[in-house]
Structures are given as structure tokens and as C-alpha cells.
Amino acid sequence: MDIIYLHDLKIECIIGIWEWERRIKQTIILDLDMAADIRRAAATDKIEDTLNYKAVSKRLGEFVGNSQFQLVETLAEKVAEILLAEFKLAWVRVRVNKKGAVRGATDVGVIIERGKA
């Protein structure tokens, strides 16, 4: 299996359960690992034959930027659903990092892996 990855994608959004979190945008960081067969793209050297990670970044930037979820768990599931459905991926690993969410911890978040049945 080949993996195309997009790490450290920073997006501002409203996320959180506390009242103050519902009033401000916070930065979340996405790390995405996406299963893709890159052999055709390697042979043709054409972007049309591979996963366009710029398109992924744009789509998720729009979606996440306009979202208002309470939980990072929900955000991770929705991101995985978009990747699997719209980009026709067989498998994804999504890491959502909400830096500074817990005092004393550098990183807090979830990692999920999802695939088509």
C-alpha cells in the first residue's frame, strides 16, 4: 500500500464544549495519511493520475473552517467521511490535534483509521 500524506495542516475553526470556545476560532492541526496506489502517477508523471493533495487541503480548509463541532472526535469522523467519499480513498488515518486544550500538555487530540468496507 502506498500512502500520500498531508501533515501539519492548520485550520481555524470553532471547536469545543466550553462557552468561551463557542465564541472564538481556535487552530486545529490535521495530519492525514491516505492510501493511494501511486504507480500510475509515477509512470505518467501526471497529477490527474494521483490524489491531488492541494484539492484535499482546499476542501478540508473550507469544511473545517466553517464547522462548529464540540468534539474533536466528531470532526475527525467527518473529515474521514469526506476523504473516503469525495476522494475515493480506500483507507485514511486522520489525526486531529487541538494544541493547548489541556493545561500542561503540548498536544491533545484523536487519531482514527477508517476504510471502506
Structural description of this entry:
With about 120 residues, the chain is α+β, with helices and mostly antiparallel strands. The protein has a single domain (about 5-100), classed as 2-Layer Sandwich (GTP Cyclohydrolase I, domain 2). It is about 30% helix and about 30% strand. The chain is built from 3 helices and 4 strands, in the order ββαααββ. It has helices at about 40-45, 55-65, 70-85, and strands spanning about 5-15, 25-35, 90-95, 110-115. Strands 1-2-3-4 form a 4-stranded antiparallel β-sheet, with helices on one face. The longest helix is centred in the C-terminal third of the chain and has 15 residues, at about 70-85. The radius of gyration is 15 Å and the shape is elongated. The mean pLDDT is about 95.
CATH superfamily: GTP cyclohydrolase I, C-terminal domain/NADPH-dependent 7-cyano-7-deazaguanine reductase, N-terminal domain
Look up the CATH topology. GTP Cyclohydrolase I, domain 2
Structural class of the helices, strands and pairings? alpha+beta
CATH class wording: Alpha Beta
Low-confidence parts: none
* Count of alpha/pi helices: 3
Helix-strand string? EEHHHEE
CATH architectural group: 2-Layer Sandwich
Number of strands: 4
Query: Helix content range of the residues, please?
Result: 25-40%
Largest sheet at a glance?
4 strands, antiparallel
Side by side, the strands of the main sheet go 1-2-3-4
- Report the portion of residues in β strands: 25-35%
Terminus-to-terminus distance: 17 Å
Mean pLDDT across all residues, rounded? Answer: 95
Family: Belongs to the DHNA family.
GO molecular function: dihydroneopterin aldolase activity; isomerase activity
Function: Catalyzes the conversion of 7,8-dihydroneopterin to 6-hydroxymethyl-7,8-dihydropterin.
Domain Dihydroneopterin aldolase/epimerase: 4-114
